[in-house]
Amino acid sequence: xxxxxxxxxxxxxxxxxxxxxxxxxxxxxxxxxxxxxxxxxxxxxxxxxxxxxxxxxxxxxxxxxxxxxxxxxxxxxxxxxxxxxxxxxxxxxxxxxxxxxxxxxxxxxxxxxxxxxxxxxxxxxxxxxxxxxxxxxxxxxxxxxxxxxxxxxx
Length: 154
Known about the structure:
This protein is mainly α. It has helices at about 15-20, 45-50, 55-75, 75-90, 95-105, 115-125. It has one domain.
């Protein structure tokens, strides 16, 4: 209808607005971040639960790393799987053009891009979104050594 004045949306929504509706992309969000990188999705878990269930989480994280690497290396297959998923759950898929452009605009990685999470929190706090008492992210990324569990336990 031509009624949208502006939108700040994630992929593939941004590519849909641009390709299907003739929208103009003013910038890519990564341009607002150091090294043009930011986290958009993170794997999270309750610290106590993760500590007590490392035997589950180590293989899970290994699988996550392998899957992210596979997605990054196989864009055509990723598009097919993504569209099959959309079709099975939503009853429709996106055009190959939209998915290809959307995937080319993002980087799939298992790296949580921790710097961007801290910057995002600083910005949100400066705008008053994190309450009066501020925030504490000192333990948000409590890594454990993935090699500390014997191979036979994973």
